[in-house]
DNA sequence: CTGGGCGTTTGTCAAATACAAACACCTATG
DNA sequence: CATAGGTGTTTGTATTTGACAAACGCCCAG
């Protein structure tokens, strides 16, 4: 209705965007019926019905009785994407070993669209937490308040970090969260200097994490790893040093293996 | 299999379908550039460019240099969908225990759109196979030649089984695969009678699997589990009986727990 | 310096979608 | 048992919106 000037650059297809609005709504509502979705999205029933029918024909949505749900197709495609990721393929067993050795939670993360995504999580023996925490990869989250995130930020080009901050800001999570540019850039330099990152109750009160980046041979950061646990335990001096050693060492092992494999990866895709 | 005349009941949105064509092409090609995709999909460059831009704006695609890839967004949504599935939430730890106890591969599967989807896999100590096999959930596959699939089919309404056969046929995979309706329906009755299913080299030569269904209190089948291993080992009489016992027992435990949690309404399922 | 490859942008017309209203179906309830 | 109000689904139609080809700018190799 309002005359949007035909926005110059990339012409975005509204029909496709709306399809993903439907997907997001189905996620938010944990499945929904036609009318419910129509209200939620401010579209007419018939339009929503057509989107759902199409998504269903594409097998990304299932209908159970009268309610529509996202289908496991997302999981299948998602697992494919994860398996394509070299950091995941190489890092997974190493992270498992790290969790076993330290007994703490271990994480493998990467960056996408300026946010952090966990590729894999394992909990060691000492790690106690809700089943939910361990089993669910939560949504993409800010990079500036996690150990994995800060390790990544520290090795991203400065202009990219600036872009990310412009895009998402630096929202606080606890009293310890870094929320200003200057502080953050200082922190990132410290991280680069000492080779590991620390999340000192900046995300969750009582939780500390130690992270280290994984970069490829060209200096590009592929992602990062971390271990985390209760501050009380994590802060004991000798234990702390030991953990840093383990994390940095594991990151190093992954790095070497990734770079050995990636030499073949520079070829253009065949046919 | 022929195209439907456009005038039909559910009006399907071509723009949305094409967006998913792009997604599938990106999966097939392991990422691609604009021109490559345009050729692959028989669309003009500019059109493909617009689809990619839109998918990127929606964060389901990332651009690395000049090549476009599916993003981890699929994994995040997929993990959400999996976690929504009660069979996964309840079954996962039980399947892990089953794999540990038996030492074999253990699977947790469900049905969607008439095909089988693995929700979870674990490999026990004795199970040796390629890393790939274990780590990757492959695409949705036929139900009629796996132990999990047959256990599911055996407890689906007959008309639904008919629909599935009409839709996908009964393609052979090995010499042992069941490829006729009559044989299959007989087999399904046997499975119902004895309470477990057997895949005797019907999918992969040399591999046997034992499966059992998980149904809810209304008799609707939610999915199934299985263990699998080399025929030589699996066929040893006492071991065989022991495995059946373990599988049926685990399925039962999951069933009880699911039904305790599922106090609410349930709808009959359609595709 | 030049040609051909690429990704991106633009103008235009036809096609594909949004909308509302009608339809069919349920299941509560007076 | 009929009716009212709630679904999901279908249809006709106006027009928004996406498809196309051609042009643009860029980069690299010959």
UniProtKB/TrEMBL annotation, chains A, B:
Alphabetized PROSITE patterns for the sequence: HTH_ICLR, ICLR_ED
InterPro entries: GAF-like_dom_sf, HTH_MetabolicPath_Reg, Tscrpt_reg_IclR_C, Tscrpt_reg_IclR_N, WH-like_DNA-bd_sf, WH_DNA-bd_sf
SMART domains hit by this protein: HTH_ICLR
UniProt keyword Transcription regulation, yes or no: yes
Annotated GO biological process: negative regulation of DNA-templated transcription
Alphabetical UniProt keywords: DNA-binding, Transcription, Transcription regulation
Keyword Transcription: yes
Superkingdom as given in the UniProt entry: Archaea
Sequence ranges assigned to domain IclR-ED in this UniProt record: 73-260
One Pfam family linked to the record: IclR_C
Span of domain HTH iclR-type: 13-72
Name of the molecule in the record: ArcR family transcription regulator
């Amino acid at each position: 209705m309002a005359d949007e000037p035909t926005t110059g650059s990339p012409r975005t297809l509204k029909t496709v965007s709306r399809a993903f609005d439907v997907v997001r709504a189905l996620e938010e509502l944990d499945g929904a019926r036609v009318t419910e979705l129509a209200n939620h999205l401010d579209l007419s029933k018939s339009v929503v019905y057509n989107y759902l029918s199409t998504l269903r024909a594409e097998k990304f949505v299932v209908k159970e009785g009268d309610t529509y749900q996202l289908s496991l197709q997302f999981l299948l495609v998602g697992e494919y994407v994860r398996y394509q990721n070299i950091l995941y393929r190489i890092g997974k067993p190493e992270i498992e070993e790290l969790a076993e050795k330290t007994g703490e939670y271990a994480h493998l993360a990467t960056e996408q669209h300026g946010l952090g995504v966990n590729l894999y999580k394992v909990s060691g023996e000492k790690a106690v937490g809700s089943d939910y925490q361990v089993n669910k990869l939560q949504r993409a989250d800010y990079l500036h308040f996690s150990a994995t995130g800060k390790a990544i930020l520290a090795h991203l080009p400065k202009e990219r970090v600036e872009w990310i901050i412009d895009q998402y800001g630096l929202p606080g999570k606890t009293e310890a969260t870094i929320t200003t540019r200057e502080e953050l850039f200082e922190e990132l330099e410290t991280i680069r200097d000492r080779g590991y990152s620390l999340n000192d109750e900046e995300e969750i009160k009582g939780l500390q994490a130690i992270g280290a980046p994984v970069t490829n041979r060209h200096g590009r950061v592929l992602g990062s790893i971390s271990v985390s646990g209760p501050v009380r335990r994590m802060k004991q001096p000798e234990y702390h040093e030991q953990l840093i050693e383990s994390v940095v060492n594991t990151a190093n092992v992954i790095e070497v293996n990734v770079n050995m494999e990636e030499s073949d990866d520079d070829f253009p895709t065949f046919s």
